[in-house]
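> agent: user asked for a holo structure of the chain below bound to zinc ion. Plan: (1) validate sequence alphabet, (2) canonicalize SMILES, (3) run complex prediction with ligand conditioning, (4) return tokens. Step 1... ok. Step 2... ok. Step 3 dispatched.
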Amino acid sequence: MTETTPPTAHVRYAYSPRQGASSRGGYHLLMNQRLDSGRLHRDAGDVLCQPRRDFWGLEPRPEVAADCTACVRLAERHGITTVQTCPPRGK
Ligand SMILES: [Zn+2]
């Protein structure tokens, strides 16, 4: 048994880096705090499936569910809880 707080993430909408008919944006999960889980290492504010710099936009959309399969899968595997609040700024 461990007493570590479960990691949390919230949903943000990101445009695809490449604009085109076949590539659309998606709802991704952004880490609310640093995560070191097995081989997965993310800083707070990182998109779960890929580093933040690969995305445009990243508008907070805490009221909707993530539809990025990679993000959702990683969250399930590493026990990340999706929350509907964004972390406070300046931390
Ligand atoms: Zn994603």
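> agent: step 4 complete. Summary for user: Strands lie at 8-15, 26-31, 35-37, 40-42, 56-60, 81-82. The first helix runs from residue 69 to 77.
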